[in-house]
Amino acid sequence: MASLEAAAENERILREIESTDTNCIGPTLRSVYDGQEHGHFMEKLEGRIRNHDRDIEKMCNFHYQGFVDSITELLKVRGEAQKLKSQVTDTNSKLQDAGKELVNSMEELKQCRLQQRNIAATVDKLSLCLPVLEMYNKLQEQMQARRHYPALKTLEQLELIYLPRASQYRFCKIMSENIPKLRSEIKDLSMSDLKDFLESIRKHSEKIGETAMKQAQQQRSLDSIVSNQQRAGSARRARKEAGLGTELEGDSSSPMSEQDSGILDVEDEEDEEVLGAQDLVDFSPVYRCLHIYTVLGARDTFENYYRKQRRKQARLVLQPHSNMHETLEGYRKYFNQIVGFFVVEDHILHTTQGLVNRAYVDELWDLALSKTIAALRTHSSYCTDPNLVLDLKNLIVLFADTLQGFGFPVNQLFDMLLEIRDQYSEILLKKWTVVFRQILDQDNYSPIPVVSEEVYRKTAGQFPFQDPELEKLPFPKKFPFSEFVPKVYSQLKEFIYACLKFSEDLHLSSTEIDDMIRKSTNLLLARTLSNCLQNVIKRRNVGLTELVQIIINTTHLEQSCRYLEEFITNITNVPPETVQATKLYGTSTFKDARHTAEEEIYTNLNQKIDQFLQLADYDWMAAQGSCEPSDYLSDLIAFLYSTFTVFTHLPGKVAQTACMSACKHLSTSLLQLLLESEVKQISLGALQQFNIDVKECERFARSGPVPGFQGDTLLLAFIDLRQLLDLFIQWDWSTYLADYGRPTCKYLRVNPNTALALLEKMKDTSRKNNMFAQFRKNERDKQKLIDTVVKQLRSLINAHHS
């Protein structure tokens, strides 16, 4: 059964192979190989092939005789065909030989006709192509000559007019395809020109700014000359109307007429041609580039690029050099670059339509203003030279005036100049501190000797001093003050001139200038000069003579303050009675210095007295005192006499106060000698010697070492000591104890505590000297009396405390 099925399957496959296209036989054969009857199938296939071969052989044997007959007929026809061929060949040769000349003529005619047509077509085509080529050549020449805008116009004509006429040609198509590239190339070349222009103005900004500032400087100088001439003319007319004539025309040496160091002489440069920004820089590239980008429809791109690049350049220009503050030239280059930048922008603003607008320029100016002010604040703070600060101020004013002439607001610059003015004042104060110190250190603190009229007039010209009595005295004579008075006064005026120079050209009113000068002068007086005087007064090696001279000098300087007031009024033309006018503090400054010097005199006198008192060598156990005052006291009195002689030129109250202070200190110090804890015992002889010394002091007080005391006022300084000594020497205890507390008491100035302390020291001495004589009646009575007085004094003290 299985063999029958396998045979049927093989038969089916064979039929399928016979009937199926060979391209689709693959799956059929795969089924054969996938099965298990592969060998049996091959046998069946061989049998089927043998059957088909037998069928083919039978068919061929059946048609063989007809094939043989056909071959025979064909051989017969071949012979006839060979004859016909040879006849045709002969005929053709004869025909060719006969028509050869005609063919050649026709060929020549054909070639001529073809050439004629080609020439006509070529002429027609060249008439279309030559204008295209000429325009293209013209375009190339214009681009090579960097004539970008004409090149753009040529390109436009080529594209719209000439190329459409010859659009069928390949080279025209290539040209048409290259037109965007050529436009882009023209655009890039014009942008390259713009970049060169930007680089050029970056390099020339400093020169442009320098030129613009020169022009502003010359204009300001011319305006100043015209203004001065107008003022001089009106002043002459006013004097003529007043009947003064021209007597005062020569006296016009006002500090306001002084030219600052930064101002150029107009006469020297009036023949020099000053170039403008358009003369220094060729602006045509930016105009061409702007026009090209406008034509190409990329104006916005061009404007954005130009503004972006100029903003970058602005940031570079506004970045100052780190060492800019060292020299004025550094500031000048910085300002020239900024001015040059904005002069160019102003020129672009007014010569182009919309490339830059006012809002853009104002934005750049606000940025520049803030960065410039910040840079100036930073770098000017490093400056310590007042001349450099003054030159910088003049340069800033010129910088502001230049830019203001181009329409830029500069109020913030002038506000910043007011800040620099305060810094300038501080620098001046530091400089004048050194000047005053040098003057005070180099002074000899002696009255100025005058040996001739010339010297007298010179000194009187430096300092406003008038003394008719001194003028009447013959030469040689002396001014009462020392050298530092005229020198300090001259330096005060120099300081005022320096302040005035800075206030010029700041567009300030006379009142504001006057107020600024007065405030700065007050700082100079109240802080700088006052500190210098205080330092001189309080230094260790200063002597009484120097202190006395300082008091005399400050007195004269105080009196000169009104002349300083008049001096400021004259140079500012602001009357002192103006409500807003600031008053000078010079009077209080010199008063404070004088009071300090007076206190220092009192202190030095007391120190000298203490030094003499340290030489005191009392024999506190002496049995009897000598008849002469102690040596140390004699030397002290002689010193006081010589010292108070020097006080002749001092104000009366100062000399009197110093004398009274010295006497009081001497009295107090002598009393302290008696009451020192180291002095345990005092004999009556020692007390008598002490009394002689006190009498010497009283004799000095009565002699009137300083005039001006009424009666025995100076003796009151020793009244406490005198009453104490009288009480002990006269041993008048009954009167003291009986009258104690009454206003009319003879010993009103004797303090019970002081009397008790001294009595205790004498009590111990009495006991020591009389311990072997204690059985004598007189000695015992005296001892009892001392004990009684001691008890009563203690009772008084206790009653007083209660």
From TrEMBL:
Residues 211-262 are annotated as: Disordered. Residues 214-232, 251-260 have a biased composition (Polar residues). Residues 44-213 form the Exocyst complex component EXOC6/Sec15 N-terminal domain. InterPro entries: EXOC6/Sec15, EXOC6/Sec15_C, EXOC6/Sec15_C_dom1, EXOC6_Sec15_N, EXOC6PINT-1/Sec15/Tip20_C_dom2. Keywords: Coiled coil, Exocytosis, Transport. Residues 81-115 form a coiled coil. Residues 412-761 form the Exocyst complex subunit EXOC6/Sec15 C-terminal domain. Component of the exocyst complex involved in the docking of exocytic vesicles with fusion sites on the plasma membrane. Belongs to the SEC15 family. This is Exocyst complex component. The lineage of its organism: Eukaryota, Metazoa, Chordata, Craniata, Vertebrata.
